[in-house]
Specification:
Blueprint lengths: L3 H18 L3 H6 L1 E9 L9 E4 H15 E14 L2 E12 L5 E13 L2 E9 L1 H8 L2
Parallel strand pairs: 1-6
Antiparallel strand pairs: 1-2, 3-4, 4-5, 5-6
Length: 136
C-alpha cells in the first residue's frame, strides 16, 4: 500500500517536472529547500557535474545547463516513492552547444523530500557518455 505522503511526494516531483518543461524556473526553484544539496557525477569536462548547494547553487547549475546544452527531450518514465524518498527513472536527449555532439542518456534521480520541499537530489547516469559529448 502506498503511503499518503508518498503520493503527495510524487505529486511534488510531477509538478517540478511540469514546471521545468514549461521553463518556469521560479516555480521549479520554489519546490527546493533553502539548504538543498544536488549531487551529479561526472568529470570537470561536464560543466554541470558536481555538488550544488542551496537555491543559489541550483540556480547556478540550471543556468550552466541552459548555456551549455540544448535539451531536445526530457522523459521521466517511471516515478516510485516510499516515504520521504522518490525515485525517478528516465532519459534525456540533448545537443552540446560547444561541440555540436548529441547524447541520449538514461538516468535515475533519487529525491529526498521533507516538509513538502526537496532537500537532497542524487543523480545516477552514465557520466562517460556525457563526457564524450563535451569532449572536443
Amino acid at each position: 500500500m502506498i503511503q499518503i505522503n508518498s503520493m503527495e511526494n510524487i505529486r511534488i516531483i510531477q509538478k517540478m517536472y511540469k514546471d521545468f518543461g514549461a521553463g518556469n524556473m521560479e516555480s521549479v526553484l520554489s519546490i527546493f529547500d533553502d539548504n538543498v544539496v544536488w549531487v551529479r557525477p561526472g568529470e570537470p569536462l561536464i560543466p554541470f557535474a558536481g555538488t550544488f548547494t542551496g537555491i543559489e547553487g541550483l540556480a547556478k547549475m540550471f543556468g550552466i545547463i541552459s548555456k551549455t546544452i540544448k535539451i531536445k527531450g526530457f522523459h521521466p518514465k517511471e516515478i516510485l516513492a516510499k516515504g520521504d524518498t522518490v525515485v525517478v527513472i528516465g532519459a534525456d536527449e540533448a545537443d552540446v552547444i560547444a561541440t555540436g555532439k548529441s547524447y541520449l542518456s538514461e538516468w535515475v534521480y533519487v529525491y529526498t523530500i521533507k516538509n513538502k520541499k526537496i532537500t537532497h537530489v542524487q543523480v545516477y547516469l552514465d557520466s562517460l557518455l556525457l563526457s564524450e559529448a563535451f569532449r572536443h
